């Protein structure tokens, strides 16, 4: 198995992706990791004796966070992100991972890797944390701001297959994000999508509300990219705020500090459960190869989790299964 990593993408590149690759290379010696980017910058973090299953692939350009996605992908053909995409397209890598410019990665998936036959709009997929530690697969979380009802049906099919192949859930429950659980609730998109999903080849359980999401009210959450991205940022922001306020309160007096010391193991378990790094790695489903978006602020640990997700998806034949479901590549 060969996984290409955009070593120049993300807030902490190239250090974080390189250090993550080093840790992953030791954990999975059967996987070859292709670090794509400027060789000198990558080698500065590799050390003197890097594992034999790490290879550096030269790419002398970098797509910046503020670059216009389509223009950047077209004009920076030798950028680390585009080169990684070509490796997937040409069969030299089974998957690619990047923590770089999200819009540019979506464009790379579409223009370089290529859209899968039967898919109108690929969807950005991620796992949202839940109190039971299982998580909810949600899509689309920002690849497309405007969606049609049939796009949401495609998301449901892809999300269900992803849940089956990567997480081993035989009959995942598919829910439609809405403002209420009643069938007649929502805007025109939601109402039309509800009707189509009721006839789709998935285990559709109806509308679900965001307030119940962290209790895993479904296994696959379907939504348009605009609503999904707001939901994602809201969940991340709420979690960070709660832990910040809690930390401040627990340090406010000697009594609360004593209580914090006693409860420290409990807080660590909760923090681990809600830590986005454990769920890092959002695949762009609907393109003809595995393209995984890593969080822009990913550290080495988060990079390892993204590699783990990519390994599992490749090992379980996710892309081939999606192609079969949707009419072929």
From TrEMBL:
GO molecular function: phosphate:acyl-[acyl carrier protein] acyltransferase activity
A GO CC term attached to the entry: cytoplasm
EC number from the UniProt entry: 2.3.1.274
First-listed, main subcellular location of the protein, grouped into a coarse class: cytoplasm
Pfam families linked: FA_synthesis
GO biological process entries: fatty acid biosynthetic process; phospholipid biosynthetic process
Catalytic activity as recorded in UniProt: a fatty acyl-[ACP] + phosphate = an acyl phosphate + holo-[ACP]
Keywords assigned: Acyltransferase, Cytoplasm, Lipid biosynthesis, Lipid metabolism, Phospholipid biosynthesis, Phospholipid metabolism, Transferase
InterPro entries tied to this protein: FA_synthesis (IPR003664), Phospholipid_synth_PlsX-like (IPR012281)
Localisation: Cytoplasm
Role, per record: Catalyzes the reversible formation of acyl-phosphate (acyl-PO(4)) from acyl-[acyl-carrier-protein] (acyl-ACP). This enzyme utilizes acyl-ACP as fatty acyl donor, but not acyl-CoA.
Subunit details: Homodimer. Probably interacts with PlsY.
NCBIfam families for this protein: plsX
Protein family: Belongs to the PlsX family.
Stated name of the protein: Phosphate acyltransferase
């Amino acid at each position: 198995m060969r996984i290409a990593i955009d070593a120049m993408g993300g807030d902490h590149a190239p250090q974080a992706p390189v250090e993550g690759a080093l840790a992953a290379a030791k954990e999975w010696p059967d996987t070859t990791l292709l670090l794509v980017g400027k060789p000198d910058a990558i080698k500065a973090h590799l050390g003197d004796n890097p594992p034999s299953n790490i290879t550096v692939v030269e790419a002398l350009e970098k797509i910046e966070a503020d670059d216009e996605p389509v223009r950047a992908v077209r004009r920076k053909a030798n950028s680390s992100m585009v080169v990684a995409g070509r490796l997937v397209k040409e069969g030299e890598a089974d998957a690619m991972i990047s923590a770089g410019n999200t819009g540019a990665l979506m464009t790379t998936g579409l223009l370089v890797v290529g859209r899968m036959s039967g898919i109108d709009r690929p969807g950005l997929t991620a796992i949202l944390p839940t109190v039971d530690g299982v998580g909810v697969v949600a899509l689309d979380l920002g690849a497309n701001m405007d969606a049609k009802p049939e796009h949401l049906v495609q998301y449901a099919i892809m999300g269900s297959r992803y849940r089956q192949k990567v997480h081993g859930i035989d009959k995942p429950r598919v829910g439609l994000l809405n403002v209420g659980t009643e069938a007649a609730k929502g805007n025109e998109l939601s109402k039309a999508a509800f009707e189509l999903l009721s006839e789709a080849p998935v285990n559709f359980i109806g509308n679900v509300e965001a307030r119940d999401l962290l209790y895993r009210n479904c296994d696959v959450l379907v939504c348009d990219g605009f609503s999904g991205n707001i939901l994602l940022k809201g969940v991340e922001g709420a979690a960070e705020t709660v832990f910040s306020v809690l930390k401040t309160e627990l340090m406010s007096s000697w009594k609360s500090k004593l209580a914090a010391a006693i409860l420290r193991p409990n807080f660590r378990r909760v923090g681990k459960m809600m830590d986005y790094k454990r769920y890092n790695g959002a695949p762009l489903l609907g393109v003809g190869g595995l393209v995984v978006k890593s969080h822009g602020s990913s550290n080495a640990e988060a990079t390892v989790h993204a590699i783990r997700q990519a390994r599992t998806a490749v090992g379980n034949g996710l892309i081939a299964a999606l192609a079969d479901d949707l009419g072929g590549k």
